[in-house]
Structures are given as structure tokens and as C-alpha cells.
Automatic annotation (TrEMBL):
Organism of origin: Fodinicurvata halophila
One GO cellular component, as annotated: ribosome
Function: This protein binds to the 23S rRNA, and is important in its secondary structure. It is located near the subunit interface in the base of the L7/L12 stalk, and near the tRNA binding site of the peptidyltransferase center.
NCBIfam families: L6_bact
Signal peptide: none
The protein's assembly and partners: Part of the 50S ribosomal subunit.
Keywords: Ribonucleoprotein, Ribosomal protein, RNA-binding, rRNA-binding
InterPro entries: Ribosomal_uL6-like (IPR000702), Ribosomal_uL6-like_a/b-dom_sf (IPR036789), Ribosomal_uL6_a/b-dom (IPR020040), Ribosomal_uL6_bac-type (IPR019906), Ribosomal_uL6_CS (IPR002358)
Family label: Belongs to the universal ribosomal protein uL6 family.
Name this polypeptide is given: Large ribosomal subunit protein uL6
Superkingdom of source: Bacteria
């Protein structure tokens, strides 16, 4: 059983962390993020560390203990460093481009796919076949990258489609005579 919650979250200099009631707010150079905790956990803020403890000995409290600690860690890391997901596009004629506030994808369909870029995210196309999504909110970055990948997921025979940069696609052998 994991005990991630036992580790304290260290708050680096430049990040202002406030705990008011059940609301945890982190403010840093990349913005401000906050979330509501449950009554199942207790938070203790001492100098530059935040410790999370289960309020009682129920199964739900033990489950939310580590989850709350991870959420606080993501808040602190998000406002100080940010998160980035890199995607690669493979296929003849497949490409991406940022046009204003939209991400334009050409993925072999009869039409282009336009995704409006959510507020708080930055999307950069270094090359027409590489897309980098970055922002302070880990959930928002992952969700947007997942939607881009879902437009045309990688296929196992030729490897065409959109995949994460660190994703490994297991290739299959084609038909034999």
C-alpha cells in the first residue's frame, strides 16, 4: 500500500500558499490555482512545508490522504514550473498549426480539425509535426493533449496518427501471402 501522503510538500520560494478553511490557494510566477479539500483530511502549513493527515481512520480518509497531497504538489509545481505535454504527428500530409486562438490539425480527414485553445494554456508548434501543450494546471494540460491525440490516435501497422512524444507504439506485422 502506498503512503504518498506521509511525505510533506515543500513550497519553494516564489510560491505563496494559503490555506483558508478547506480552500488551498497557490500563487506563483505562472498564475494562481486553487482547489477545495474534503473534511476527510487535515492540512498543516508550517513555514515552507505542508503536511496532510487523514482526519479519521476510515477507508475514504486514507484514500483521499494521498490524493490531496498529490493535488497540493501539482498546485505548487504548476504555479512555479508548469507542466508540458509533447505530441508528435506521423503520417504523410499530417500537420498542425496554431492560428490565433485555435489549433488547426490536418490529419487525413476530408476537413481540418480546429480546437479552440483553452484559457491558461499555451500551445506551440515547433515543427508542423510537433505540438507542445504547456500550462500551470496539470489536469487541463493533460485533458487538452488527450483531446488532440483522440482526433486520430496512433495505429499499430504504419504508426500513423497523433501520439505522445514519450509513447511507444507496438507495431504489428501486416498480412502475409
Amino acid at each position: 500500500m502506498s503512503r504518498v501522503g506521509k511525505n510533506a510538500v515543500s513550497v519553494p520560494s516564489g510560491v505563496d500558499l494559503k490555506i483558508e478553511g478547506r480552500t488551498v490557494t497557490a500563487k506563483g510566477k505562472l498564475g494562481e490555482l486553487s482547489f477545495e479539500t474534503t473534511e476527510e483530511v487535515e492540512l498543516v502549513h508550517e513555514e515552507d512545508k505542508v503536511t496532510v493527515k487523514p482526519a479519521n481512520d476510515t477507508k475514504k480518509a486514507r484514500a483521499l490522504w494521498g490524493t490531496t497531497r498529490a493535488r497540493i504538489q501539482n498546485l505548487v509545481q504548476g504555479v512555479s514550473e508548469g507542466f508540458t505535454k509533447s505530441l508528435e504527428i506521423t503520417g504523410v500530409g499530417y500537420r498542425a498549426a496554431v492560428q490565433g486562438n485555435n489549433l488547426n490539425l490536418q490529419l487525413g480527414y476530408s476537413h481540418d480539425i480546429n480546437y479552440p485553445i483553452p484559457e491558461g494554456l499555451k500551445v506551440v508548434c515547433e515543427r508542423p509535426t510537433a505540438v507542445a501543450v504547456s500550462g500551470a494546471d496539470k489536469q487541463l494540460v493533460g485533458q487538452f493533449a488527450s483531446e488532440i491525440r483522440k482526433a486520430r490516435g496512433p495505429e499499430p501497422y504504419k504508426g500513423k496518427g497523433v501520439r505522445y512524444a514519450d509513447e511507444v507504439i507496438l507495431r504489428k506485422e501486416g498480412k502475409k501471402k
